[in-house]
Design a protein that fits this description.
alpha/beta; TIM Barrel; single chain; 10 helices; 291 residues
Length: 291
């Protein structure tokens, strides 16, 4: 248990989840986007600092690392391999493909079969592995039939290059369409205590037992301010002697057992703070206040 044990009368949430019924991970993971610079372009830290951060996350028990080929581009995947290869047996690597970058904050969907295949194989080389545990379609390319995009990933799965397939940034209709083609192991949508637009997608994932990885779980930094008395989040944080960011992460863990937050940071102190949130037990009163 974390430093908050015994400070509430709520239910302790489950700390693990089995992606696709077989990849057991601790629900609070680590995202690598913040290892890159502004606009997800170039490096943010020195290689030594980034390697130390990744190793510390695993030392603290993280078993789910979320990354993408275009974080950098290439940089985040290369840092993971530099820091952790050969990988611990319980570490699950989740990466993404299907987007081409042309500059900071410039993203272009590229879902043609030849693009997806080339991206996946490049990720395997950078990660120094023959199979990626979870490969997520980073964006659905509107110019390519979804069945063709998922079909390519299914072929890569049959070839042993992908173990499980996921989706990133989808509507409920798109998820339902995908379910007619294959069963995604995961969905990664923007979702946090202040941004619940993807609530219907989360509900479908819960119904289907699909892992839901919320991106921007801390509101892109807007939920990491110190505690006070102004907002519901700050009031709950003050009652528990926690930070607003820890409450935001605990809310996600309490919200549904399929939610797997992977907050990212380039700060060692912030990493420790985030991972301590798993021990924060929110009460029914806390959850009601945050609703």
């Amino acid at each position: 248990m974390g430093p908050f044990a015994g400070k509430g009368t709520g239910t302790v949430v489950g700390t693990t989840f089995e992606i696709a019924g077989e990849l057991r991970v601790r629900r609070l993971g680590y995202g690598t986007a913040q290892l890159t610079g502004p606009g997800y372009w170039g490096p943010r830290l020195t290689p030594g600092e980034a390697v130390a951060l990744l190793r510390r996350a695993v030392e603290r028990g993280v078993t789910l690392l979320d990354t993408a080929d275009n974080y950098g581009p290439d940089i985040a995947e290369e840092l993971i391999a530099q820091a952790l290869h050969p990988y611990p047996g319980d570490l699950v690597l989740a990466t993404k493909g299907g987007v081409i970058r042309t500059g900071p904050d410039k993203w272009h969907a590229a879902g043609r079969p030849e693009n997806l295949r080339a991206m996946c194989e490049a990720s395997l080389r950078r990660l120094r592995t023959e199979t990626v545990d979870l490969y997520q379609l980073h964006r659905i390319d509107p110019a390519v039939p979804l069945a063709d995009q998922l079909g390519t990933l299914a072929e890569l799965r049959e070839e042993g290059k992908i173990r499980h397939i996921g989706l990133d940034t989808v509507t409920l209709d798109q998820l339902d369409e995908a379910l007619t083609v294959l069963r995604p192991a995961s969905v990664q949508n923007r979702f946090n205590v202040l941004d619940r637009e993807s609530e219907p997608v989360l509900e479908r994932c819960a119904e289907q037992g699909i892992a839901f990885l919320p991106w921007f779980p801390l509101g892109n930094g807007s939920l990491t301010t110190g505690t006070g008395t102004g907002t519901a989040i700050e009031r709950v944080a003050a009652r528990h002697g926690a930070t607003s960011g820890q409450v935001a992460l605990a809310w996600l863990l309490h919200r549904s057992p399929v939610v797997l937050p992977t907050p990212g940071t380039g700060s060692p102190a912030h990493l420790e703070e985030n991972l301590d949130a798993v021990g924060l037990v929110l009460t029914a009163e806390d959850m009601h206040a945050l609703e």
